[in-house]
Design a protein that fits this description.
This protein has 3 helices and 4 strands; from the N terminus they run βαβαββα. The chain has helices at 10-21, 35-45, 66-77, and strands spanning 2-5, 27-30, 52-54, 60-62.
Length: 79
Amino acid sequence: MNLYIKTWCPWCLEAMDWLGERGLAFTPIDVLADAAAFAHMRRISSQTLTPTLEMPDGAVLADFDVSQLEQFLQERTGG
């Protein structure tokens, strides 16, 4: 999973902590440090807000909190 973040974003930090606590592998990508990543995030999410999660199958969850992240992942994994 790719997690598009802004390093100062509290929702991004919370999402990274939540994923890490559950042992879920993800790659954090700082969109303010990488213009190409920012453009990609805009393309896949149609917005500039973070956090944005991109699953390996192309599914995207944009501008979310931890409860939305948990629901999204449960729906995708059936658990």
